Amino acid sequence: MATKPRRTSSEHQPLRAITYGRVSTGRQATSGGSLGDQREALAAVVAQRGWRHVDHVTDAGLSGKRMANRPGLLKALDRLDGGEADVLVASKIDRVSRSTEDFARLLNRSEHKGWGLVVCDVDVDTTTAAGRLVVDVVSAAAQFESKRIGERVREVHARRRTEGKRAGQAPVLPEGVRHRIASERAAGRSLSVIATGLVDDGVPTARPGATWHASTIAHVLRSVALDEELAGIGSTS
Q1: pTM of the model
Q2: What is the DSSP string of 20-81?
Q3: DSSP structural state of residue 164
Q4: Across the beta sheet with 124-125, what order do the strands follow?
Q5: Helix (H, G, I), strand (E, B) or coil at 84
Q6: Mean pLDDT for each 10-residue chunk of the chain (237 residues)?
Q7: How far is CA 216 from CA 85, 189, 213, 219, 223, in A?
């Protein structure tokens, strides 16, 4: 994806800023005190830099664990992508993200879409050359952590498999349903035919409200095959 050129501030065309505030508790959201403090502080930051304050966006009473759970922030990002503003300003890094991976994704998005990000408590300011160096550092750290997590998961799975144990979630479907699917497959029935038969017989899936598909049948068959493999390992150990 090509990176858009970043608009720079000038005497006649100051950068347009959207400020963002968030509180996570119901008490803070109701009182509005914390949100008000954030708004005033961020407005002062924008004014000090000589930028134009386009809007202040908030998410009240919402968790900061994942950006996907915050509609106010997502709408602000869409507006920045669309060119309605040039900079997103937040007071603290945990207001926009508590995940290194999410923050790295946010930084990369700002780079590719051509808008800036300012987070006051950690001196992140991608409207400057020094601030943009943070993008590379955080992204590299997130990529490293992601790889390390993957390595640890694979190590645990490999160890559990050698012990004849299931690495993932235990089967949720009743054993009778799993046996029926395996038996029908062994008899030569296609995945779609097995799925249709289960739907016709009103057999529920592992997830309430979901329906049977060929892909669902394939997943169950992989689970059954894994259990058979682990049973074989256990019998020889």
Answers
A1: 0.54
A2: EEEE-SHHHHHH-HHHHHHHHHHHHHHHHTT-EEEEEEEEES--SS-GGG-HHHHHHHHHHH
A3: T
A4: 52-60, 16-23, 87-90, 116-119, 124-125
A5: coil
A6: 58 86 60 72 93 92 67 93 95 79 83 90 78 67 65 67 57 85 91 94 86 90 75 51
A7: 45, 15, 5, 5, 11
